[in-house]
What does this fold into?
Amino acid sequence: MVDEATQRDTEASVRVGIDVGGTFTDAVLVDGGGRMWIAKVRSRPADVATAFVEGLDEAAARAGVAVGDASYLAHGTTVATNAIVQRRLARVGLVTNRGLRDVLEIGTQQRPRVYDLWTPKPPPLVARRDAFEIGARLGPDGNEVAPVDPLEVRAVAHRLREAGVEAVAVCLLFSFVDPSHERAVANLLEEELPNMPISISCRVAPEVREYPRASTTALNAALLPLVGRYVRDLDGRARARGARVPIHLMQSNGGVSTAALTADLPIALAASGPAAGVIAAARVAAELGVEDVISFDMGGTSTDVALVAGGRPSIRFQGQYHGHVVNLPQVDVVSIGAGGGSIARVDRVGSLSVGPESAGASPGPAAYGLGGSNATVTDAHVVLGTLSPERTLAAGVRLDANLSRAALARAVATPLGISPEEAAWAVLRVVNASMSEAARLVTVARGHDPRRFALVAFGGAGPMHACALADELGVRRVIVPPFPGVAAAHGLLLSEVRHDVSRSWIRHTASVAPSELDRVLGELEQRARELLAHAGQSDGTVAFEVDMRYRGQAYNLTVPLSGRPVTRATLEALEAAFAEVHVALYDYTPRLPETELVTLRARATAPPPVVRWEAPPAAPGRSSARRVWFDGAWREVPVFERNAMPAPLRGPAIIEQEDTTTVIPAGWAAGRRAAGSIVLERQT
Amino acid sequence: MATADRTLEDSVTLEILANAFSSVAEEMAIVEYRSSFSPIIREMLDFNCGVFDAAGRLVAASEQIPAQLGLMQFALQAALRKRGRPLGPGDAILTNHPYLGGTHTPDLQVFMPAYVDGALVGYTGSIAHHIDIGGRFPGTESAQTTELFQEGLLFPALPLVEAGTRNAALYDLVAANVRDPDATLGDLDAQLAACKRGGDRLRELCARYGTETVRRAMATLLERTARRAEDVFRSWPSRTVSAEGFLDDAGFEGTDHVRLHAAVRVREGELEVDLAGTDPQVASGINVPISSTHAGVYFAVRCMTGLPQNDGLARRIRVHAPEGCLLNPRFPAAVSARHLAVQRLADLVLEALGELLPDRAVAASHVSFPAFVFQAVDPRHGRVTLLADVLGGGGGARRDAPGDHGIDTYCSNCAILPIEIAELEYPWRIERSELVEGSGGAGRMPGGLGIRRDYRLLAERADGMYYVEQTREQFAAKGREGGGPGGVAAALLRRAGHDYWTKLPAKGYLELFRDDVIAFVSAGGGGFGVPSVHQVSDNPREVG
It folds into this structure.
């Protein structure tokens, strides 16, 4: 008979994270012995669940374990994101107050591109004919202006059925103050329309401003059928492979939740993709005792930059997906169109630009030899020798240095009258500068000095640019995680279970009774804990935050609230914290510093089980050398396989591994640290 | 090789710094709108920020409201001329004078110099529409002023901060003369914070790249934009095209319509916009100071060229407006509601450029621009409140797509006031906020629909100014290539206890009482292409 304790121990430690990206599906498995296994399979845009299962099988096979051994399965998915981008959305009916049926079409009435007269606005989530009005109405204090008329709502239900909608969104004015009207309407609709997916705004995003709330709710409704099906399908397929644990999905807020829960709030998955990488950056740094980092993920077509302060990714509370506003917490990622495939050009007056156009994966950079003739950032690296033409990239692509050189000569060197090396160097400087502008947006523009942060570099191209970007920002430390090419899948294993709940509660701080605030926070806490419990976490911690502003302002700043029970001192601390953040951001305090509370937030988290992972032992120093162009001249530079690098290693030097190349310029030195990360430090 | 090195360095550094100048302006804008107090800035984003060289030439601008596009340099240069010397370290000036490069009085402009080691690098500036700057009417702005002196406080480039010390007397003067001093002074703080942030960033760039390089990059950027503009204009046909447009009236009920005319042609790499043929200035607030006239033209040119707005582009555009006409009035003509004519001007310059470049032609968008400010005491707390809102309307149809519904058009891009914000902060209830069916011009591609919004007063009494343009059929948004015109705009009133709507004059001052409902209807956009028979018959145009 198998020792039960041992069995549990093994089970408890086999964890699998699977990230489905646009081109590849990455799986990371950590087995009971703390060994990490990686599998990469091709994504299947038309059949995401199959790629998931293939990744799972492949990782299990490589590790020599059965799928059933997995004690934890986490999944990052772009299924919601892609549905929005490709508009594969359910037909949604909207129920709202009399006179408001065009709330989604009118939106803010602003044009996204002010000087573009030609591109139409994206069509609204709900067609005009599918929007229905009811006479019920609440005022701003929750006072009833007109009651819910059940007969009228049943008649609307009938018309919704006639219209053939596939899901329903309910958004009524001031439901964040008093949800009773929305709930009454939803109950009546459920009676009349059994099995119809229904989303109500007081559950999805109970925050002030009717348009973003309606937009968030309608988009959630539009995703309910598709994501519900996907989640059920995934679960079934994983079970068929022997999986015995529920799948956890990565949400936009950087936490995971069970598939069953996210099936009710699919909109929370919309920014799942970039979030996992940021979590990986935060955790990898935390293992080294570093809590403040800039997460820098540079891929083929774009670069995602995000801030991690005090070990926590920065969160923003509003986002835009394909022109649709969504009010839900999401990791505050700034994305710019600069990556390995970004195209360099010189215009007629001699100005050099790089991106945002990208050569993509096909035909890709000129170096790929797949017919691309544009000079890209990758070509610049090939010309300068930082990327070795001897290496084979993913999917068997080989690099051709002659093609890169010809492309750079044609596009940049000849028009500017300089050599191809100088042209390549110029391209890198321009792209580094535009990435530094993105990094400034998440640091300086948010009141943080980038110089006190470390940079965590990943994505296929991140470690090639990291030190140069760090120099642009005055950052003195760069961390390269063990597997920069699969950071998102890795991050899935490191994410906490997280649920956010919020409610707008607009009050002058001075007139708030602590006991009343405590009661409302208590309700939020209870709801947040219920969600954690549904996700299988019986204990966890709940933290509170409050969106605040000075009276008369519209934009809030979010500050932490110390905890319950709320006392007068809690409120004073809140005001002090707000004043401090305001000064840090805007350099001043208004003449009449009277503050208001706007939205109360509760965040329930349960920490992820510790993943023990051991770095492979360093191999004896196998190294080579090649000519690499740095700062105006060719130099003979040592090149090491990652496992064989000596520590410390002073730049200039190159470190190569299967999924990326790390560039160490002069003035930087690399050392290996715990958990297999490389830490690069500025020497001068 | 020396030349090549220089070329390389210039190309790389210039690209880096050109991007950096734009992000300095955008970062200033973030500081400003997030910390502003007036809903017109914070909710509607009626402001802009800019970076200028040491001579006061615009280098880069944030992109909120095109109506303020490229015109801050007129105010800054006028201020520098008036002073006769640059601003000193720690100085800031406040200006809003429409005849010293300003727009209308509520647009307060603040400028600060950026010094590095005693050397002037350039200036940063902010322009923002304040909710009220005193004067005869709540909210200051009105089409029914008859001379500039009724339009609130005038600041002819006055010191706001001197060597780091605030001009307390000026602050006191402002506080004593405006209806919502907390908002106005708070917004001035936000403007100063934005300018300061911009200055800090310019100094950082100088520390990194060298002051001389930053200065040279500014000059080169402007020169290259000018060369690009020249290239674009030389590629256009050289014939003269023209268009005319009308305002419904001269600002008062019963007055005649007012004509605007533009003739546009390319000559020797420059775009000439001749506004001769525009009617003389009028005795109301719809005249346009010359800086705003430029902004209307710049908007149309930017749409058609995609070039960035800076002094380099401005160098290749010649605007001729005869002195004393509506678009270049003589002091002290009233200019408070100049935006209506600016929108019309942008419309007709685009119409003319569409003739020149038929591939890019679109049908006209609405320029009705219903807007108001009403003052009322909120019974919930006894304080005076100023409710302002602006309605978008129908966008013009394109060759291959219909017009957008309910958008703020051309030189404006204000957000509509959220209903929940309106009801939380003001004693009003918005009972209807919907698209106006049938208001889009007929066409193979139909025009976009206008918006109707109904506001019920919940306080004892309110008063204020409102205006709306395009209330006459003959001046509706024009179709293109056989497309029909958009529907017209209106202001409507239903008094408490009555069940009928009265059509109000297009512009006016109004007193309202509890449970009165005032409604604004914006115009629709023009259609593109000949409509099918079905569409012609299906074009109800009623309002109310």
User: Anything to note?
Assistant: Chain B touches chain A through 82 residues (CB under 8 Å). The longest strand of chain B covers residues 119-129. The two ends of chain B are 74 Å apart (CA to CA). Chain B has a mean pLDDT of 92.
